[in-house]
Amino acid sequence: MPAITVDDLTVLDRLRSPGLGDQPRPVWQVTTAPQGFEGEGFPVRRAFAGIDLAHLDPFIMMDQMGEVEYAPGEPKGTPWHPHRGFETVTYIIDGVFDHQDSHGGGGTITNGDTQWMTAGSGLLHIEAPPEWLVQQGGLFHGIQLWVNLPRDAKMNNPRYQDLRSGEVALVASADAGSLVRVIAGSVDGHHGPGSTYTPMTLVHATIEPGARLDLPWDVDFNALVYVLNGQGTVGTTQAPIHTGQSAVLGAGDYLTVAASGSQESRSPRLDVIVVGGKPIREPLAWAGPFVMNTKSEVMQAYEDFQRGAFGHIPA
């Protein structure tokens, strides 16, 4: 897995162990992501399908894209499409993706990079593999997370943050059995490079077979764990969890994820995305690529898109 790593976890700073009085977060729900296809036909798992939006707030959805080994000529992306009222966070674990928008923004992300796109007032957007990858094929794997914007930020100007893998904060668990990559927010004083409108934390953790990760977590945030690959347990009650499953956790000071001692050869470790944020607690009106507060705002977004207010597809 080319997402940034280190050979010797003992050289990293360690997360603190839970202290006296620290409360573990209970497991409220475990769900299994349905599989399908997005855009022009790349495979996705809808990570948070079946979870009440009230438990997701401030998040809307998350897709696991791949993991897929493309043959020459097979790599696919999305056609041009609009966005308004939220942010997309695209984290590429394996492979290469090009982004472009109608405001002249975009770029290329690969192996451990993240592109944080604030759609704000609206833009047209396209995501696609580069031409050389289409021609030769290759492995592709990543996630895309949709983060809601509060009412007073929904019509902000669009912007990008290109977060390179080398900027991600790296820290080890107390026993050095887990590598924690902090992409946004902070964990136990270790800060990721992502700047967010909504207070939140995004982590990619790799847990060695038989190891256990006790992850300190902001008490004001909700917490969701999604398994990219591997198998193990979540919570101090050791609820089983495996590839393509999500866990919704309750309140507490820290969360626990443990890797089974035996893993599949294709997935020798347990990899999880952990995400949480401070709930916005505002009305939500969501239709396709528009995430607003009211139905009339969604209808206005459709009208603005149809009259070309989101910009035009570059020549």
Description:
- The chain is built from three helices and 26 strands.
- With 315 residues, the protein is mainly β.
- It has a single domain (9-306), classed as Jelly Rolls, CATH 2.60.120.10.
- InterPro entries: Pirin, Pirin_C_dom, Pirin_N_dom, RmlC-like_jellyroll, RmlC_Cupin_sf.
Short description:
This protein has about 325 residues and is mainly beta.
Q: By helix and strand content, what is the structural category?
A: mainly beta
Mean pLDDT: 92
**CATH class categorisation:** Mainly Beta
List segments where confidence is low: pLDDT < 50 over at least 5 consecutive residues.
Answer: none
Specify the CATH architecture.
Sandwich
Strand percentage: over 45%
Distance between the termini: 36 Å
The sequence of SSEs as H and E is EEEHEEEEEEEHEEEEEEEEEEEEEEEEH
Per the CATH scheme, the topology name is Jelly Rolls
How many strands, what sense, and barrel or not for the largest sheet?
7 strands, antiparallel
Give me the CATH superfamily: Jelly Rolls
Classify the helix fraction into a percent range.
under 10%
User: Judging from the principal axes of the Cα atoms, what is the shape?
Assistant: globular
Count of individual domains: 1
* Radius of gyration of CA atoms, rounded to a whole number: 19 Å
SSE topology:
Layout: E1 27-32, E2 35-38, E3 42-46, H1 53-56, E4 59-70, E5 81-83, E6 86-94, E7 96-101, E8 106-110, E9 114-118, E10 123-128, H2 131-136, E11 138-148, E12 159-163, E13 169-172, E14 178-184, E15 186-187, E16 190-191, E17 200-207, E18 212-216, E19 223-229, E20 231-234, E21 239-242, E22 245-249, E23 254-259, E24 270-277, E25 285-287, E26 290-292, H3 295-306
Antiparallel strand pairs: 1-22, 2-3, 3-4, 4-11, 5-10, 6-9, 6-11, 7-8, 7-10, 9-12, 13-14, 14-17, 15-16, 17-24, 18-23, 19-22, 19-24, 20-21, 20-23, 25-26
